[in-house]
Amino acid sequence: MKKIITTTNAPAPIGPYNQAVLTGNMLYTSGQIAIDPETNELFKGSLEEETHLVMKNLKGILTEAGLTFENVIKTSIFISDMNNFSIINKIYAEYFNEATAPARETVEVANLPKFVNVEISAIAVTDI
């Protein structure tokens, strides 16, 4: 059985998808970009601020599901320019304990939704 997770602390979906789906003990989040959940407008600012907003949006979804970043077991990071990796990685690292950080991949892509610089999705488990 799947349960749809919805929160006002992350951007509303703009297509046929949900913010997250919980099935069994697994939570799958949709990729988050720097859309301000209060206005549903694309954030315009520094790469650091953009990455923090992406992580804040992920946190909003995790919180709604009763989880934290400690429950995350896998992330996927999509970036528009691999030259930005060190900046994004530095911000990302602020949200995880290095000793228990999730597995992940980071991939440079040609374009992301709304031509943002970074998109991150996560898989979490409820029973850590």
Description of the molecule:
By secondary structure, the chain is α+β, with helices and mostly antiparallel strands. The protein has one domain (2-125): RutC-like (60s Ribosomal Protein L30, Chain: A), CATH 3.30.1330. Helices cover 21% and strands 30% of the residues. It has two helices and eight strands. It has helices at residues 47-64, 85-93, and strands at residues 2-5, 20-23, 26-29, 35-36, 41-42, 72-79, 103-108, 118-125. The strands form two sheets. The protein has a six-stranded mixed β-sheet with strand order 1-2-3-8-6-7, covered by helices on one side. The protein has a two-stranded antiparallel sheet with strand order 4-5. Helix 1 (47-64) packs parallel to helix 2 (85-93). The longest helix has 18 residues, at 47-64. It is globular and about 40 Å long. The model has no long low-confidence stretch (mean pLDDT 96). It comes from Mesonia mobilis. Belongs to the RutC family. This is Reactive intermediate/imine deaminase. InterPro entries: RidA, RutC-like_sf, YjgF/YER057c/UK114.
